[in-house]
Amino acid sequence: MAKARTPRTPKPKAEKVEKKVLQMPDTTVSVGSNGNSRNSSVELEPQIRLRAYELFARRGYIHGLDEQDWLEAERDVLSRNAQQHTA
Questions:
Q1: What is the pLDDT of residues 24-66, one digit of tens each?
Q2: DSSP sequence for the chain
C-alpha cells in the first residue's frame, strides 16, 4: 500500500535585500591659509591607486607587496603634487 503524502509547507520568502553600493565622497578642494587650493585626500586617492597599480604591473604582477606599492605610490604622487604647487 502506498504512503499518503503530506502537504508541503511553503518556505518563508526571503525579504528583498537592497544592494548597497559604496560611493566615494564628493570631491572637495581645501583652501590653504595663503589662498591656494590644495588637493584633498579624496582627489589624491585615485592618483595613488593608479600609481600603485603601475608599480604592481612593473614588478610583474607579483602579489604580496601591495602595502609597499601603496606607500611608494603615495610618496610619488605627493611629491609630484608638491612640485606642481611650488612651480
A1: 555 444 444 444 445 676 789 999 999 999 999 999 999 999 9
A2: -PPPPPPPPPPPPPPPPP-----PPPP-EEE-TTS-EEE-HHHHHHHHHHHHHHHHHHTTS-SS-HHHHHHHHHHHHHHHHHHHHH-
Q: Which amino acid is at 31?
A: V
Half-sphere exposure of 22 (CA within 13 A, CB side): 1
What the block records as the C-alpha cell of 42 is 579624496
Enumerate the domain spans of the chain: 37-86
Cα 50 to Cα 48: distance, rounded to the nearest angstrom: 5
The pTM of the full predicted model, rounded to 2 decimals, is 0.52
Contact 38, 30 (CB under 8 A): yes
- Residue 28: the pLDDT is 45
